[in-house]
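hiii so um. not sure if this is the right channel but i have a protein structure encoded as tokens and i wanna go backwards to a sequence. like what aa goes where. can anyone help
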């Protein structure tokens, strides 16, 4: 009975609290700059995540505390090249991923993206990487497919009443058609013109499962016990149309030789049918939001009055060089690089564990299993010596010879090292092809009804999209001199 007396309970609680406090204050991380609250709890960080504001919160902490910030008792964020290289490139593919990536398992299976350690990742990458190599995505059948979809995108936008189109939806449709072309041709989608395909894509792009998935990650028991109640205000991820499309399409034969599906006819390792479908669905989701949102933010920026000169210069380059391949146009490249720098579709931290034995990063000793990360949004905006005026959209900076290697090295939109984006070359083809098709014939302006806030960055689990999920632009045809045709 004595054990349960209020005095004993209070004393025990005080002792536990004191131990917790001493541990926090004497932790090897205690010298790392950051807000006091981060020493004791991760609740503030989690709250920001739930509110879709994690990236902006961490960015503000870096602005206040510098390039190394303790963001939670066991978590540290960095912005320097040295830290980025250590975390993501050491030993080839950097440190192991954390269990955060369990949230992205598909059909209950791990994909290349969700493998946590180096060995599992390398095994899977040996099978898949071939079809995303530049030499494969640049094959004529692959590039022609992207070109056809880009032309359809332009037709859809410019034939809309008044030349006003919601490019958020149209760009996601384009990205879905391009990635499914690369996975399954001739069984890819046609979201740009077919309503039923667009509906399937919309389930993926408009996913609102951030809160539900975060709760399942941080409080799995609570999530299990109260999933029905939770369903009422925090929806789980549900993409039945895409799930079915991929499961069915993965069983078809006769896919073109540049596709990922055809790769499985050559090399499957120990992958079964569900593993292959899981990879395809993962790449499909990865390809829709990233390319779709990245292009959406970029076209929005180009359409602002402040970017008129940039749009004009881009149009001049494109119109003067109609026969030059899209990857040989310096200003187009600069616009894409600057778009990815200012609006990285995955702007947030990519969490990794400090390996066994601990490591020193940026002058701070970190014990093993500390969670460390860099976020592209801050890496791109806070390295002032490499990107002066980091908040300003200025493609010209990519044309300067001086500092070129530094800029390209620290460009983190596709991550870096062996776990960097496998779809990078495909994404760049999609972006450049579409920009070329739009700005060689049209100029764009924001529709009067659009508010700046609708284009604020809203964090989802692994990518960020415009808050309003809508982006209305007006497309103005250009005349032979590159001037807007009077309507
Ligand atoms: C502008 C477009 C894109 C951007 C900015 C982007 C960005 C990224 C980033 C930052 C990562 C690392 C994620 C992490 O470590 O957590 C990644 C990985 C990945 N991306 Fe992309 N991505 C884009 C387009 C695509 C496309 C079109 C595909 C289609 C296949 C794709 C497939 C993947 C896959 C499979 C991984 C995992 C790679 C691995 O773990 O080895 N991405 N991407």
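sure thing!! here u go:
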């Amino acid at each position: 009975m004595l054990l349960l007396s209020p005095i004993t309970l209070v004393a025990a609680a005080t002792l536990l609290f004191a131990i917790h406090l001493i541990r926090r204050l004497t932790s090897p991380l205690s010298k790392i700059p950051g807000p006091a609250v981060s020493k004791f709890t991760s609740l503030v960080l989690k709250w920001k995540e739930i509110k879709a504001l994690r990236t902006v919160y961490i960015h503000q902490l870096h602005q206040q505390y510098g390039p190394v910030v303790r963001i939670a008792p066991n978590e540290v964020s960095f912005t320097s090249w040295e830290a980025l290289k250590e975390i993501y490139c050491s030993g080839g593919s950097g440190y192991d991923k954390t269990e955060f990536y369990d949230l992205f398992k598909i059909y209950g299976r791990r994909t290349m993206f969700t493998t946590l350690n180096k060995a599992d990742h390398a095994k899977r990458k040996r099978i898949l990487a071939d079809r995303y190599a530049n030499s494969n995505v640049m094959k004529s059948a692959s590039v022609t497919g992207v070109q056809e979809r880009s032309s359809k995108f332009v037709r859809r936008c410019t034939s809309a009443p008044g030349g006003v189109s919601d490019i958020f939806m149209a760009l996601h449709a384009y990205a879905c058609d391009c990635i499914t072309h690369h996975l399954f041709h001739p069984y890819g989608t046609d979201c740009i013109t077919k309503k039923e395909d667009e509906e399937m894509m919309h389930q993926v792009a408009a996913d609102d499962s951030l809160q539900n998935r975060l709760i399942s990650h941080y409080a799995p028991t609570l999530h299990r016990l109260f999933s029905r109640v939770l369903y009422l205000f925090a929806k789980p991820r549900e993409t039945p149309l895409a799930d079915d499309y991929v499961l069915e399409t993965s069983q078809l034969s006769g896919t073109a030789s540049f596709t990922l599906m055809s790769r499985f006819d050559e090399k499957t390792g120990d992958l079964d049918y569900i593993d292959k479908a899981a990879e395809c669905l993962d790449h499909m989701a990865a390809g829709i939001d990233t390319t779709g949102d990245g292009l959406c933010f970029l076209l929005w920026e180009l359409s602002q009055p402040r970017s008129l000169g940039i749009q004009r210069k881009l149009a001049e380059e494109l119109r003067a060089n109609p026969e030059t391949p899209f990857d040989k146009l310096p200003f187009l490249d600069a616009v894409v690089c600057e778009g990815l720098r200012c609006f990285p579709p995955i702007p947030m931290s990519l969490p990794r564990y400090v390996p066994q034995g601990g490591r020193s990063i940026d002058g701070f000793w970190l014990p093993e299993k500390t969670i460390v990360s860099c976020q592209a949004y801050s890496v791109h905006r806070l390295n002032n010596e490499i990107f002066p005026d980091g908040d300003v959209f200025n493609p010209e900076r990519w044309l300067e010879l001086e500092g070129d290697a530094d800029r390209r090295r620290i460009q983190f939109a596709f991550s870096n090292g062996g776990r960097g984006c496998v779809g990078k070359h495909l994404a760049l083809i999609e972006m450049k092809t579409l920009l070329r098709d739009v700005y060689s014939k049209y100029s764009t302006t924001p529709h009067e009804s659009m508010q700046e806030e609708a284009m604020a960055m809203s964090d989802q689990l692994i990518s960020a999209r415009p808050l309003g999920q809508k982006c209305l632009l007006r497309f103005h045809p250009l005349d032979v001199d590159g001037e807007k045709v009077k309507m």
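oh and The two ends are 88 Å apart (CA to CA).
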